[in-house]
Specification:
By secondary structure, this protein is α/β, with parallel strands linked by helices. The protein has 14 helices and 17 strands. A seven-stranded mixed beta sheet has the order 6-12-11-10-9-7-8, sandwiched between helices. It starts with 6 loop residues before the first helix and ends with a helix. The structure holds pyridoxal-5'-phosphate.
Length: 421
Amino acid sequence: MEFQDDLDFARKLDQQDPLSVFRQEYLFPKIEHQNKVYFTGNSLGLQPKGAKDALMQELTDWENHGVDGHFDAKNPWYSYHESFKPLLAEIVGAKESEVTAMGALTANLHALMISFYKPNANRYKILCESKAFPSDQYALESQVKLHGLNSEDAIVELIPREGEHSIREEDIYAKIEEIGDQLAMVMIGGVNYYSGQVFPMETITEKAHQVGAIVGFDLAHAAGNIILKLHDWNVDFAAWCSYKYLNSGPGSVAGIFVHERHGEDQSLNRLAGWWGTPSEGRFMMEKGFKAAIGADGWQTSNAPVLSMAVHKVALELHQKAGIQNLVEKQKQLTAYLAFILEEISSNNTSVQFEIITPKERGSQLSILTYGNGKQVFDHISKQGVVADWREPNVIRLAPVPIYNSFEDVYRFGMAIKNALK
Ligand SMILES: Cc1ncc(COP(=O)(O)O)c(C=O)c1O
C-alpha cells in the first residue's frame, strides 16, 4: 500500500479497519482529556474496560461465599484455570492439554528448565541470544550454577555481526551445528525484547533437535503479537507473561506450554506442588507426588483467581478480534509507523533514526537515534506519546492492533516533528 503522512489518510485507514471497534474496549491514559498515543503495549498492555467488573465478581463471590467460593462462586475457583485452555491454545498454537495459565514468567521458566535442562559431562551448553532480557540471563546463569557448571563456559550467546543489529538466521543454525552434541538446550526469546526481531522458531527447533538438544522459548514478546504454532513446530517448552500484548494487568498470571510428547513423562525432574497433581485426587491429600498429564503437571500452587479474572476478560477480547485479523492489522500499522519514521528521518539532518528491527518483526519497532535522540524522546513524552527509552540510544515503539489506530501513528509523527522544531 502507498502510505501518506496525512491525517485524512490515517483516518481513512481507521474507517476501513474492521478492528477499530475494539479501541473503545480499553482505557487509555490521558493528556488534556485526550487519549495518549500509547505505544508501550510491549511493556504493559492497556486495561480492558471489562476488567473491573470481572474483578468485582470475584471479590463479591469471596465476600458472599468465603472459602466455599472454590466450588460455589459464579466461576468456581477450583477449576478456574481450566477455562484458559482453549484461549491459550489458540494464542500459542497448541493442544489444550499442552498449555496452562499459572505463576509468573521467570519462575515458570525456572520450573520448566528444572525439567528440561539436563546437562551431563559432554552435553551441557545452552544457546541463547545476546541482549536477552536480563531476567532470562539471570535465570540461565542460576540454572547452570545449580548444576555446578560455569556460566562463562556453558552459556553461548548468539551475537549480531559487526555493524548489524539483528542475528542472522544462518548464524543461528551454524552455531547450533558448531556446538553439536555439546548442546543441551536452546532458550531464546521468540521475539527479542530489545530489537523486536522475530526468531525462526520452527527451523531453530528442527535444527536443535537434529543435534539432540531441547528447545524452549520465552514468548513474553511473542504471545498475542505474532502467529505461533508451538505444537506443529515441535517446540519442547515455552513460557510467556500476560501483561504485554495480552493486556491482563501488571504481574498478572502467566502461561506455559509443554509439548504433549513430554506431558506424560513422570520421570522428569519437577519442582512439585499440590496443584500439579490430577484435579480429581487433589483433596485426598495423599503422600507421593504424581504429576497430572500435560502442562497441568507443572503447576505448583492454587490458581491466582483475582489476576485470572482480568486475564480472562483480556483473552476473550483477543479471541473476539481474531488472531489472524490482529496480525494482518499489525503488519499494516507497523508498516505505517516505519513509513512515517523514514519520511521524518529523510527530511531531517539534525536527528537521524535508524530502524534496527529487521523485517522479521511483530508490532515493535526499535529505533536507534543519533544526535540528541534523548531530548527528542523527552519532548514527545511531554506531548503525550508513551514509548520507551533504552540506554544508550534506542526508542522502542509498539503500536498494538487491538487498541491503537492509524491516527495514533500519525499523531506520533506530528509529535516527533514538533520535537525536532
Ligand atoms: C523477554 C522477557 N523475559 C522475562 C521478563 C520478566 O518477566 P517477569 O518479571 O514477569 O518474570 C520480561 C519482562 O518484561 C521480558 O520482557
